[in-house]
Fold this protein.
Amino acid sequence: MGYNILKNSIVEPKEIEDLREAVGWDRSEGIYEQVLQRHYAYYTARSANGKLIGYVSVLSDGVADAFLLDLMVHPKHQGTGLGKQLVRRAVIDMKQAGIQCVQVTFQDQLEPFYAMCGFHIFRGGIIDFKNIKQDG
């Protein structure tokens, strides 16, 4: 199934927060107004009735590196290829912009998905200040 994926189209922060909630994430209320202004690009997909059903954001220096963030597909549309289309569109655009490397972090169970999207999988690390438990 083909979806119309738009780059940097009008989207309300609340729509992204609602999509986060639909996929089982916390809403992260109040951050997306800044995210939409600061990220290099973002991509959206909408249902026939205009509801946001897919989103991914790109953080980049515009030269060497780009990072895919917040890939979300509404549960009713998961397994349809929409996530792969969102990733593909972002990666193609980054390549055309001359960006040298596109990176993504993900949970272990998503490794087959990102490998299918063409990512070379290797080990890495992350410090997640939002979810880290503080020791005394």
